[in-house]
Amino acid sequence: MNYLLTNDSDRAIQTFIDLVEIDQNTIEIHITLGNLFRSKGEVDRAIKIHQNLLARPNLTRKQRNMAVAELAEDFLKAGLHDRAEKLYREMAALQVDDLTAYKRLLDLYISEKSWYQACECAQILYDRGDRDAAIVLSQCHCEIAQLALVDGNKKLARINLEKALDINHNCVRAGLLLIELHLSNQNYTAARKLLQRLVKHNPEYMVLYIEPAKAIYLHGKESKVYQNFLQHQYEINPSNRLAIALLEHYANNNQIDKAREFLGHILKTSPSFDAFDFALRFLKSEPRQPGDTWDSLSDFLKSMQSKKIEYICANCGYGSHAIQW
Q1: Which domain holds residue 83?
Q2: pTM
Q3: What's the pLDDT at 278?
Q4: Residue 64 sits in a domain of what CATH number?
Q5: Please, what's the largest Cα pairwise distance for the chain?
């Protein structure tokens, strides 16, 4: 205790190891002391204590598993991932708390972007009934598919994306990547079918469906269908991204009156910097348009100015557009 009070941790540890025999009553003391050093950032000392514990031959399988788990945490904290991985594999082999071992391995492989190994661990957890494993496993398959697409391996990408959707029907990422794959193969029918499924079951990701919808409908020269799609989705759940997509569509298809009218509506009801940017580009390309668009734009700028923070309290940091005495 005196060594600890004088911050002589090394001598304290050695004295503790020499004096305190490891038995059924002191194992938790060893583990707790090691954890204390680890929490203080003294990882090398934590490793020394936990390694000393593991060197004892009289540990039960459960006790050895506890010591292995703590030593693995020490190695992780020290950045020694290969050693931590080896210990977690040993934990899994002991089959005392193997689910925890696979969860730790999964986190480790994800942090290292080792997607095949991550898939292996997530698959084991999924097969063992872990509820959260389905989402993680589907995302791991998406990572592999994305790398395969970059390498031009469409077959491998498709296999992993289909696995992801089999495991998690609501995996929007897998659906979008598979649409991208279908489009690259000019399979517009499959792409459209999958898009409709995403829109129906996961409408909250609508902003991510705009570009795929544009590619699908405009390739088939279904400009009106694309326009109706945007209008319908905007009516259901208005968003800035849908509004800009609809404005761009009006402008690109020479529907100037509709673009001007809708732009005025957007600037008055839900102004945004994206709408402001579109308005500037629109007015540049259509300088002869009536002045109501300019009026809407002016109102938007005034509203932005009214929200601008001009004064900040030096004491508390409170900001205001008007002086607060």
Answers
A1: 1-112
A2: 0.76
A3: 85
A4: 1.25.40.10
A5: 92
